[in-house]
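Fold sample X.
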Amino acid sequence: MGLKSAQVAFFPICSIEDVVKLFGSELERDEPDLTLLSLVLGFVEHFLAVNRVVPINVPGYSFDGSSEQGDESRTCFPHVDLLQIRALHARFTTMIRGAVDRSLYPHKEGYSSRELVKKVSDVIWNSLSRSYFKDRAHIQSLFSFITGTKLDSSGVAFAVVAACQVLGLRDVHLGLSEDHAWVIFGENGEETAEVTWHGKGNEDRRGQTVAAGVAERSWLYLKGSYLKCDRKMEVALMVCAINPSIDHHTDSVELLQLQQHLLWLLYDLGHLKKYPMALGNLADLEELEPMPGRPDPLTLFHEAIASAKVYYNNEHIYPYVYLASFFWRNRNVKDALVSWGDAATVIQDYNYCREDEEIYKEFFDIANDIIPNIIKEMASAIEASEEHGDGETEGQHGCPLSNTALQDPESFAQLLRFYDGICKWEEGSSTPVLHVGWATFLVQSISKFDGQVRHQVTIIVKDTESNEDEDQHSDDSREARRRGPRRESKAEEPPLAKKFQPEKLMERRRSAPSQRADPGPVPVSVSTPQALTAPTGPCVTFHSEKMKGMKELLTALKINSSAIKLQLTAQSQVQMKKQKLSSASDYTLSFLKRQRKSL
């Protein structure tokens, strides 16, 4: 079955508007043609980024110059001919239908079988070139697959789904995390199957489920809170996968504009509401070149975070990283630290595995490059203003108005929250996270905050060890005999009520920062010296054992760098939490044996 007459009517395609019209028409159908759309995008990307030649006086090409005379930043758009796209489309569909005999793989209750999905992935996998650099740019589309037999990791997964659509398998869709893709199928997408590789390795896990990765609580599989795509979200994926880079220093303006227009089309149709990373991508494009009458980037970043909270149990990291990067680019250090702290708070509930190297590098760059350089820059600016200024740049509290983050206890509290999340991430993980490099930059960063500023932060230690021990050892008969009464009686014990009262105070303050100076709540907390300072400054709750051990060191007037480095790089003494999912705690993923990608 070739292209339909309604599809043929959109050719030739000579502009961004023509591509948008084609996508709009396909998105109105229940089953947009993934093969056609991917071929068109791949064709355009190839001639605008890979083999870019600016045509002059060549018939069949659209060329629009800039309105300003003498401006060399001209834009061009290739001529997408029907004959070329039709031939590529026929070649892909013929290859798939000729290689897969559906009669050999009967449907089970109307749904695809694992064997059939595995067969389709075999066809795609075996059609790839045997040797090529799999991380190169511009090999994510079916155009690259048909013309060069090359695909990147996510491109293979997309090609499998497109091939299944060619075969009429409507229940086969993409499952997406923030750094990996696989296939979901069956009733309500309950079945999963690996169809591609991840990272530098080419381990063949095709056909296996992703249940092991979910049970390991690795970020790569988002603890099961991944995107279960429909056809419209799969179209959004191919749009997000557009790579506008011509080289390391230059992007194609035409591809950026095309991606922006297509994402707005998907946004208007409601197909991005469950796709946080696509919303973040759109926000980045709006920051580069805002479109009139559209929401501002900050609104879109917050929509991405709201999407992750509503649909994915707040298990996604990148919406917070995108927002922090936006604040950082706009020199809003305070809010950037808050967003980085939020990202670390999410990651602390995962276990670090070697396949999580991308998010590790993200946090490594933030902790050991971005934050230290920001703080160093602010400290240098403060020193310069003190040397050359006459006090006019200082606010009412003696703080430089343009560099208030180093004089703000709340910013220091957010920095501590960020590191606490990283340390908690390491606990219970099979692979260590922190090393001496992390400790060096931690000491460097916190030392730039004045001792009086650090001393204003109230650190609350969340002691959950007793509860965890009871959960883990409740089956121990000796412990049961020694405890006597059942746990229902715990609510009546006064010490626990006192223990949790400061945490409630901290939570109320976090949700309502304007009430931070209110000394009214928690009369019982007066019994502890720590609670006496709570009304005068921000609070931060430590969950990790390493940060709990550094509680006094971090707020001391003088930094003991050696003690902090020893504590941060010490081997975690927290035992791995027992998994409640069958024998998942004893199961080690085979790909954990690979070496971590160099940083």
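Fold sample Y, listed below.
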Amino acid sequence: MINFYFITIDADVGAGEQRDAGEQMDAGKQRDGGEQRDGGEQRDTDAGEQRDGSEQRDTDAGEQRDGSEQRDAEVGEERDTDGEERDVADSEEEKEVDSDETDAEWFINFSCMLNEVEAEVETDGYHSEELNIPISSDDEDEDVEVYPQYSQSSGVGEQKLELGMEFGTLDEFKSALREYSILMGREFKWKKNDKQRARAKCKKAFCDWEIYCAKNEVRNSFQIKTFKHNHNCCREVNNKQANRQWVVSKLEGKLRMHPTLKCVEALEYFKQEFGVHIEVTKMWRAMKEAKQLVEGNERKQYAKVFDYAHELLRSNPGSTVKINTVPSPEGPPQFQRLYICLAGCKKGFVAGCRPFIGLDGCFLKSAFGGNLLSAVGLDGNNHIYVIAYAVVDIENKDNWKWFLTLLHEDLGDYIQNGWNFMSDMQKGLIPALQEVMPGAPHRFCVLHLWKNFTKQWKSKELKGIVWQCAKSTTVAEFEGHMAHLKTINCQAWEYLNKWPKQAWTKAHFSTIPKVDNICNSTCEVFNSRILQYRCKPIITMLEEIRSYIMRTMAAHKCSIKD
């Protein structure tokens, strides 16, 4: 408004100059008309003198006199017209003078009112502090000033806050300010924070750092209008701006790139990348929440188990997927156990693998716990070959019997195929195997047998005799080691002698599978490979295991070709 009235006053001055120029032109025309009249009278006198001398000249003079009279009449008309124009110009000049006086009085009153408004705004302490926005021009070719734009996709430390930077929303500015504060190692506090503006100052009272962002109505954005970027305070490692929500947002992307990230590694990552120290308890909770965002909610995934089973059957025709549930009178049925045997694994084991199956179970580390039962074989190159796996609530006889029954149905008759089994003597496994497949050869893992032996006898000599007995390839060699053990410690000999000899020593193994393994290493390798998956939600874990089986089979196939 102030600029507009200054332009109006300048226009009035220009109009006055135009009126003065008009008056000068009118006076010049009057003088020219008077001179023309004097010239006409002189010509009339000359014409009278010439009329006395010659008639032809009288005739010419008469014609000239008539022309002079006509010119006199035209000059008179021009004089009358000029007089009327001067009268109109004088009246318009009086009106313009009155209008100038009125505009001047209005401008003085407006200036006083504007000063009062500015005084009231300054008392609040949060004036607009608008930047000098460049005035728009109708000329499309004129260059328009461009302000820096904030980008959320920029990496850590790639973009800095600066005066005039524009944001899409005020929340975007607050998020950027939090990132800036953590990277700088300084805390701030909000002095003003509403829907249209936000002002923050350094938490230290003696520090001059300050930033102010408000709505820019012209550009329809939020813009930094005040920024004092120099800090007078020292950097701090512990920053309260690095709350759990911020830590979760950073961990989410990190976990997608590194699914096996541990809590200790995450603490070191934040220290190196952002220069901030996070408490262990806060990091542990943030890791748990970030994993739910990446891997899915553990509770909700149990509701999708049937959908996952149908998808496996659709994409792998011939597979076996069994789900058992416990009826609940007050709600939907409760998940109990799940069995999976992929068609490719089933057919491949029967067609080309050794008739040797390792059985083992391991704990699940998810929020709802459980156990994972597995059956792992050996191919012709002594590579592990996963046959089937199951998720159960607990490792007991009932669950093992259910698992072995389904495994027997998938692989066929154990007597005809000559299946041999090895286990760690898990709870309920031995009686379950005898009920499902009675008389099937069953080996025990010597490593677990030795660990149980060393709990009672700590002698190094006795520990070595156990391995000598297990590795004996002939009956005579085995009997010799057992006799030596009996002479040293009779109780240790009684402990080993109570176990079936065909279950833990090579001298009494069955020769059908052509495998002399005395440890259940196949299952131990499989359990170690899926260790990172056992802490994930059920569907995520099952899909990771399926992907691992596919990658392993493909890698073994490529190694054979090479």
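Sample Y note: The first strand starts at residue 166 and ends at 167.
Also: The radius of gyration is 51 Å.
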